[in-house]
Design a protein that fits this description.
Keywords: Glycosidase, Hydrolase, Transit peptide. 20% of the residues lie in helices and 20% in strands. It has 15 helices and 30 strands. It has an 8-stranded parallel barrel. Strands 1, 2, 3, 4, 7 and 8 form a 6-stranded antiparallel β-sheet that branches.
Length: 713
């Protein structure tokens, strides 16, 4: 009986009740917002709290002028939602937008302008930037056009991987930059399809989670310009300026010119999952591409400016993002918008999590003040659809709000640990007064995350923003002249050291020191508790020639040079083996912070600290040497001990080793002072250390030992 009733309802809803501009229409369904395919037509639904009239504008695909404009009858409005079902449309051949008319009594905070055609903020696809770098038509009356899409992708049973956070190794990459260089050898460089061809490389490296820099639709020509000195075209390459929050970037799809970017991205996720690799999206909900008072009107500004943006009492835009505007994220309307978007990507695209750019903004109220209990952050933490998704906060913003360790977390959020980055960088370059802080970072930053566990700390030394690893050991200062901003952009506090020469050099000793320093960084990162994140290309020492803010370059400067895979095999082998070593030892991945006790009564604490003498660490400000031993007997499935010594002094030191239980011996896994291939072993095949009582740790080098039972001969 229920099926019969349902069929009758569908039939009734499929029947037009009147005509508008020659099209058969009927009152629409208010939810869901956006354009939805329904029986016989398309349901259009749009929200505006103050509009007095809304017109649906239809284009034939690619045509400069509208084919029809359909005023939505006032009687079709329910509350502040204007909805209408239009029948007999060419679903695949149309693009659509809206004209929104403001009230007769104008509020100075509103920016209604019916001469502008507005994009649908819920559009599942956009046209207008279908192919990367194709010069746009500046005279286009509607540059970012909303499109209809079909839900017919075959997922073949794909499901989120749900890899435990303790086991993750994250790899941050730029979709275009990763395969755009001709050296990538892929059939479709710079695309989702091209990235699929590099999955075997990532699997062999050992990472099991990729964090993709923004893939929501954006305009690479936003603020595009020619560098007067070099003649180079500069772009919005990174994409931290969203146009369409529900739409994958068409210019990243080999099939984008055919409107198939959604299927291509879904296929990318499916193939990553087949390889056991999760997909996390870097998302930008702190601001939009509409900019400040002088920016373009794309959607939110013309729909409901005072609802979607934080405004000063004078009606200007608060700028906590540093890019001109700030989304009013804790308005109930915007909060629901953000949640709907995240649910959509989790359910429709099967993504495994999200990293939130400038996430401190998401905790600000409409007046910009930080909220004690931000509704949006709480809602995300407990949302039933997002239960399995990683939620990672960049816990600061451009307005000076720094919340690393204090971000409202609800025992659910993780954070990019900026304090980890700064401490490890200072230690590697040999700064004084860092040893105690370093020890805290190595065991998962309990000073910041004791109440919620070590996996709340996303440990990183480099990311897209700032020096990459090779430049961190090759430059004392940033060199951003190619950005055309007179080297005034980018951070100045890089905590870097050039090892004796600024930039490229032929000095073999400096080159050896740089390689050793990069290995030291990877040793610390991959033996620290918490979740490690590696920047794409660091494993093969990719350089940006000292540019620490390469946001505007679509060139060899930002592209992955795949020739480095062969040229820097030594570094690649070291990193790959370090990842495998981490996976082999659960004591390095424990979710709970160690406390120096012996919870299982095995005679060894879960973590212990050592110096020149075993069990006697040097915590003085002048100390540049620390050794840490993790006791695997406290962890199920790990009977080994792991000993990590880091010496940032410019002199060698002889270290006394702590004794092991009877029947166990120290084995040498890594020594960054040794020449390859003796610098790192294959996990499980480490040679027994000749001297079980002590080891020499070279100047500015690290040693990793594993204590385990000697295998029968």
């Amino acid at each position: 009986m229920t099926d019969v009733i349902r069929a009758d309802l569908d039939w009734v809803d499929s029947f037009p009740t009147q005509q508008v501009a020659g099209y058969d229409v009927r009152p629409g369904r208010t939810m869901p917002f956006g354009a939805t395919l329904v029986s016989g037509g398309v349901n259009f639904s749009i929200y505006s709290s103050a509009a007095k009239a809304v017109t649906l504008v239809l284009f034939k695909q690619g045509e400069p002028e509208p084919v029809a404009e359909l005023p939505i009858p006032d009687e079709f409005r329910i509350g502040s939602v204007w909805s209408m079902t239009v029948f007999n449309l060419d679903y695949e051949g149309i693009e659509y937008g809206y004209r929104v008319y403001g009230p007769s009594e104008v509020d100075f905070r509103d920016r209604f302008d019916h001469t502008q055609i507005l994009a649908d903020p819920y559009a599942r696809a956009f046209s207008g930037r279908n192919e990367w770098g194709q010069e746009p038509d500046r005279s286009n009356i509607y540059p970012y056009r909303s499109r209809l899409t079909f839900e017919d992708f075959d997922w073949e049973g794909d499901q989120p991987l749900r890899i435990p956070s303790v086991d993750l190794v994250i790899y941050e990459l730029h979709v275009r930059g990763f395969t755009r260089d001709p050296s990538s050898g892929v059939a479709q460089p710079g695309t989702y399809a091209g990235l699929i061809e590099k999955i075997p490389y990532l699997k062999e490296l050992g990472v099991n989670c990729v964090e993709l820099m923004p893939v929501f639709e954006f305009d690479e020509f936003e603020n595009s310009r020619i560098n007067a000195e070099t003649g180079e075209r500069l772009y919005n390459f990174w994409g931290y300026s969203t146009v369409g929050f529900f739409a994958p970037k068409a210019g990243y799809a080999a099939t984008g010119k055919f409107g198939m970017q959604r299927d291509e991205f879904k296929n990318l996720v499916k193939e990553f999952h087949k390889a056991g690799i999760e997909v996390v999206l870097d998302v930008v909900f702190n601001h939009t591409a509409e900019g400040n008072e002088y920016g373009p009107t794309i959607h939110f500004r013309g729909l409901d400016n005072r609802t979607y943006y934080m405004l000063t009492p004078e009606g200007f835009y608060y700028n906590f993002s540093g890019t001109g505007n700030t989304l009013n994220c804790n308005s109930p309307i915007v909060r629901e918008y953000v949640l709907s978007c995240l649910r959509f990507w989790a359910s429709e695209y099967h993504v495994d999590g999200f990293r939130f750019d400038l996430a401190a903004i998401l905790g600000r109220g409409p007046d910009g003040a930080p909220l004690e209990n931000p509704p949006l952050l709480e809602s995300m933490a407990f949302d039933p659809v997002l239960t399995d998704c990683l939620l990672i906060a960049e816990a600061w913003d451009a307005g000076g709000l720094y919340q690393v360790g204090s971000f409202p977390n609800y025992r659910r959020w993780s954070e990019w640990n900026g304090k980890y980055r700064d401490t490890v960088r200072k230690w590697i370059k040999g700064d004084e007064g860092v040893v105690g802080d370093l020890a805290t970072r190595l065991v998962g930053s309990p000073d910041l995350y004791w109440a919620r566990g070590a996996c709340s700390s996303i440990n990183f030394i480099t990311c897209h923003d700032g020096f990459n690893l090779a430049d961190m050991v090759s430059y004392n200062d940033k060199h951003n002249e190619a950005n055309g901003e007179h080297n005034n952009d980018g951070a100045n506090d890089n905590n870097s050291w050039n090892c004796g020469a600024e930039g490229p050099t032929d000095d073999p000793e400096i080159l050896r020191t740089r390689t050793r320093q990069m290995k030291n960084a990877m040793v610390l990162l991959l033996t620290s508790q918490g979740v490690p994140m590696i920047l794409a290309g660091d494993e093969v020492a990719r350089t940006q020639h000292g540019n620490n803010n390469a946001y505007c370059h679509d060139s060899e400067l930002t592209w992955m040079d795949w020739n480095l895979v062969d040229e820097n095999q030594e570094m690649l082998r070291f990193v790959s083996n370090m990842i495998a070593f981490r996976k082999a030892h659960p004591s390095l991945r424990e979710g709970h912070h160690p406390h120096g006790g012996d919870p299982v009564g095995c005679g060894y604490p879960d973590v212990s600290w050592h110096g020149i003498r075993a069990w006697q660490p040097d915590w003085s400000p002048q100390s540049r040497l620390i050794a840490m031993m993790r006791n695997g007997h406290n962890i199920e499935g790990d009977d080994n001990h792991v000993y990590v010594a880091s010496n940032t002094h410019w002199e060698d030191h002889r270290l006394e080793l702590p004794g092991l239980p009877d029947g166990m011996r120290w084995h040498l896994f890594a020594d960054t002072a040794a020449e390859a291939p003796a610098d790192v072993a294959v996990p499980g095949r480490e040679p027994v250390l000749a001297d079980q009582h002590g080891i020499s740790v070279g100047a500015r080098s690290s040693v990793v030992l594993v204590g385990r039972a000697v295998a029968p001969s």
